[in-house]
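Dear support,

I submitted the protein below through the web form. The confirmation email said the job was done, but the results page showed an empty box. After a refresh the structure appeared. I'm attaching both so you can tell me whether what I see now is the final result or a partial one.
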Amino acid sequence: MVPFRRVRVVVDYRPALRHRTGLGEYVHELARALTALPGAPVHVTAFSASWRDRVTAEAAADLPGVRVVDRAVPVGLLRRAWARAAWPPVESLAGPHDVAHSPTPLLLPSRRGAQVVTVFDLHFLHAPDEARDVAQRDFARRVRADVRRADHVIAGSGYAAGLVRDDLGVAPERVTTTPLGAPRWAADVRRQRGSAPGRHFLFVGTLEPRKNVGLLLDAYETLCRRRTDVPPLVLAGGLAPGGQAWVDRAGRGALAGRVQVTGYVTDAERRRLFAEARALVLPSVDEGFGLPVLEALACGVPVVASPAGALPDLVAEAGLVAPLGAPGAWADALERCLDDTVAADLAVRGPRRAEAFTWAATAEATRLAYERACAARRERR
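What the results page shows now:
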């Protein structure tokens, strides 16, 4: 394959509006990193459409070299038009391009550009009852057709690549794996942490069924019965359907006064929570990548994670992995993080592991995926 000299990419930036969770962080950091690649330039248009939410001035300023197109149109109406008629083409909203990249498994309608989709997990397909909004219900209904029609598929991890091949029947040569990158702010957080042991256990993520926070509460309550010096538990993230029961439980009984539920946190608050964390805990039943885990590793925060999805490969030897369905084992893992020797060892292992993940590498692998998509598009024509 002969690399092209110049590619124009329109990336669907909508997941980065309002609360920039894992998918939104991926979209934002990828757009930023693509424009910084050496060699053949990637010209990125970050496309957003919403009647209510705008791309903030702060976000736009953090995307040097990225063209931002922010359309004030009803996003629900646009989503329905795209789902039912693949209209209007994104060219009519964001301008001409060579590649239309959707960070979700649903195609971004394009008249002439190669179409690329990203898949992190298929939990919405494996557990359809847990779909928390209409967009995720669309995923379950359309994912097979859209992924097969795409000119190329990007997988956010080796685990996700396996799902695309095995569950969706996509040929391996049509899939490129592009793991995510460690945060730019990790070094600052490490300096803030210094040698302090940390003030709290930390969970970061949307309070939704697949995050399995009930197991964490069980383990934390078990540990609190064992000893009196257990630090507080902070649950940081937005509330989704299915998560209210955890919030209610956190405020009563043995957990009352010990568990803080913050709701969605700003970037500054997130960094402060990492700087003061004794350990990050993620008991998910499925994860397509696990960005909070990588952030914690990069910050030198000890990690306790489940063996689900992409998490074991991400954590490797740099953190602790506890089995699902075993609150006692999770309590043991949390207790190990209270041992200063164990915590200090994990604080060294984490940043070393995180060095393998950079947004520059993500962007380079994504550029290769764009090249393959354009080649596939030309062959089809």
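Response: this is the final, complete result; the empty box was a page-load delay. Residues 186-354 form a domain with the Rossmann fold fold (CATH 3.40.50.2000).
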